Amino acid sequence: MLKKDSMILGIVIGIVLPVVGYFSLTWLNEFISETIFNRPPVFRESTIEVISIFLNVFPFRYYMLKAQLDYTGRGILLVTFLVGLYYFFHYLD
After folding, report:
1. What is the pTM assigned to this prediction?
2. Residue 13: CB partners within 8 Å, gap ≥ 6?
3. 83, 53 in Cβ contact below 8 A?
4. Fewer CB within 10 Å, N side or C side of the chain?
């Protein structure tokens, strides 16, 4: 299923991976900071968002270079670009 060359598959991967990464990193940040060290969370919200956007680099690289599935890679890149623009304009002061 993940070997299909489809723009829709790339868009789905590009959306799901950062969302799962964001919630995982948020939970991990709060769990480690508050439970283990008894202090406020170390990473700010914006840092976690950038890291979760960056997670799209790994499947993008795989689909473009290893698997040679260009349309799937383009879908991932499209979502990454749009989320990156949203992040930029959201935190622009």
Report:
1. 0.87
2. 2, 59, 72, 75, 76
3. yes
4. C
